Request: fold
Amino acid sequence: MMNQNLKKEILKTIEISREAAQNNLGVTLECYTEIISRLDMLSYLIMCEEKK
Reply:
């Protein structure tokens, strides 16, 4: 059976890992949004150029 200190350390590690995963997801979503925005802008500029 695990001692109390080991359980606390494991729970602390789990919480840190959970926060890291959440932060990484946030950064990934920001990057995705930025990339999509730039691609949309490029598409718009190309479409406007074709209409001239």
About this structure: The radius of gyration is 23 Å. Helices lie at 4-51. The chain has one helix and no strands.
